[in-house]
Specification:
Strand content: under 5%
Number of domains: 1
Number of helices: 5
Shape: globular
Structural class: mainly alpha
Length: 143
């Protein structure tokens, strides 16, 4: 039964041709499924990378998921509607995610034993990898 539910959730966006960049953000369930899937995958990937930097996985995942949702709706969508350049909007998102990751890494609640200070480069590489994957997941699911 669970396999059918996963299949329906994964195929629903394909049926409505939802794309998180093109589709109206408040226009339907398909958009929410695509955005949720893309941001969820992004948070998982960034959590895995940051786990190897000795950050707490559960707290990091939850913080990244919430932060990604906030950054998407507060920064990405307004920027994309104003400047109409996906490249600039994506670059701004990677920068915002990198700063957010660096801030999270400086908080003791997200650190586990043997934590070494996270470098800016690592934060931005993690943000870029997560954003690239979420963009592709959103595009694939949305078609």
């Amino acid at each position: 039964m669970k396999k059918w539910a996963v299949l329906i959730v994964l195929l629903c966006p394909a049926a409505v041709f939802a794309n998180p960049v093109v589709f109206d953000p408040f226009g339907g369930v398909g958009f929410l499924i695509v955005v949720g899937s893309a941001l969820g995958v992004e948070a998982v990937l960034m959590t895995i990378i940051l786990f190897f930097c000795h950050m707490d996985p559960l707290r990091t995942f939850l913080a990244l998921l919430g932060g990604n949702l906030a950054i998407y709706f507060v920064i990405f969508l307004p920027t994309l509607s104003e400047i109409d350049s996906l490249l600039i909007a994506e670059a701004l998102i990677v920068a915002a995610d990198g700063v957010y990751i660096k801030i999270l890494s400086s908080l003791e609640a997200f650190q586990i034993e043997d934590f070494k200070r996270l470098k800016w480069r690592t934060a931005f590489i993690c943000a870029a990898a997560g954003n690239m994957l979420s963009y592709y997941i959103g595009t694939i699911i949305g078609k």
